[in-house]
Specification:
Length: 334
């Protein structure tokens, strides 16, 4: 007997979907990419042919009306996430929505109006990667000692005025695009929410987007996250956890190479140049495939999504507080 698979529809031909998520979904044993939609019938047909997808749709509405589609992956621009996630949910489709789930917490709160029985999750794929599961295990087990601090950086350089990530009206800027990752990582490791935050933000004089963010998140009980994120600095990323016995660093925390092994460095401080540190190699993995499999299994088994609407709203509240700190110039409590 052939195991049941979830039929996915891809909402738009956005590059993250066509280049990363669709190939990954095909590695999920519980997933089948059945269709792809665009506002252009020609673009949808071309993408379907290029990617070997059976169905194409010349409008998003046509795909949502297809009874053969079980779940939607929504990689639309940030300002369209909530609108089309709700439309899909009201059409009876489960939705995996790209991060951030909305423009702010008020926007995300609208997702609570989705029909009962429909699963909605925010696509922070890192929470499904073995390197992050192992890092959290280290933090919880005492292997690093008493864990008190996390530190992260995430940057790339993009000054293209036509890129949607440089358009504030669409939810562009560093905080929503990549600053959300260190926050999600720290929430994941600490298994807690920040109690207060403070940020420093530099905005591009032309785009008016936040191009450099520096921030501190106080998780209480002597635990904190410090991070920087930028859309106009040299490409780099790191995530480190500091304990009283050792620190652990994921070398490529956010854009882990798909289908490749990854590395965590564990350093007890015996040598300040880290020459005495050991390396732990994690198995080959595609974090987008793991994410798709987890979501598909939730649908098939009738269990809650691992990270649902309430988690996404909590994430947006932290991001809102960062921008409120920019406005007030001080700490903001959550």
């Amino acid at each position: 007997m052939t195991a049941r698979k979830i039929n996915w529809g891809i909402l738009s031909t956005a590059s993250i979907g066509t280049e990363k998520v669709i190939p990954a979904m095909r590695k999920s044993v519980s997933s089948n990419v059945l269709g792809i939609a665009s506002r252009s019938p020609e673009r949808a047909a071309q993408a379907a042919e290029r990617l070997g997808i059976p169905k194409s749709y010349g409008s998003y509405e046509d795909m949502l009306a297809d009874p053969d589609i079980d779940a939607i992956y929504n990689p639309l621009p940030n300002d369209l996430h909530v609108e089309w996630t709700l439309k899909a949910a009201r059409a009876g489709k489960h939705v995996l929505c790209e991060k951030p789930v909305g423009l702010n917490a008020e926007d995300a709160l609208r997702l609570r109006d989705a029909p009962d029985g429909v699963l909605i999750a925010e696509g922070f794929m890192i929470r499904h990667h073995p390197q992050w599961l192992r890092l959290r295990e280290m933090a919880r087990s005492g292997e690093l000692g008493d864990v008190r601090a996390t530190q992260a950086a995430f940057s790339y350089f993009n000054d293209d005025p036509g890129d949607i990530r440089n358009k504030p009206e669409n939810g562009g800027g560093a905080m929503l695009d990549i600053g959300c990752y260190p926050i999600t990582g720290a929430r994941f490791v600490f298994d807690a929410e920040p109690r207060r935050v403070v940020s420093l933000i530099d905005r591009d004089p032309n785009f008016r987007t936040d191009r450099l963010v520096g921030a501190i998140c106080d998780f209480g009980d002597g635990r904190l996250l410090t991070f920087q994120a930028s859309t106009q600095l040299v490409p780099f990323q790191t995530f480190q956890v500091f304990g009283t016995k050792a620190r652990a660093e994921i070398l490529i925390p956010f854009n882990a190479p798909q289908g490749e092994k990854t590395t965590i460095v564990i350093d007890d401080g015996a040598s300040l140049d880290a020459s005495a540190a050991r390396r732990e190699t994690l198995p080959s993995c595609d974090q987008y495939a793991e994410q798709a499999e987890a979501f598909a299994q939730s649908i098939l088994t009738g269990t809650p999504a691992p990270y649902g609407v309430d988690d996404a709203i909590a994430s947006m509240r932290v991001l809102d507080a960062m921008f409120e700190s920019e406005r007030t110039g001080g700490w903001v409590s959550l």
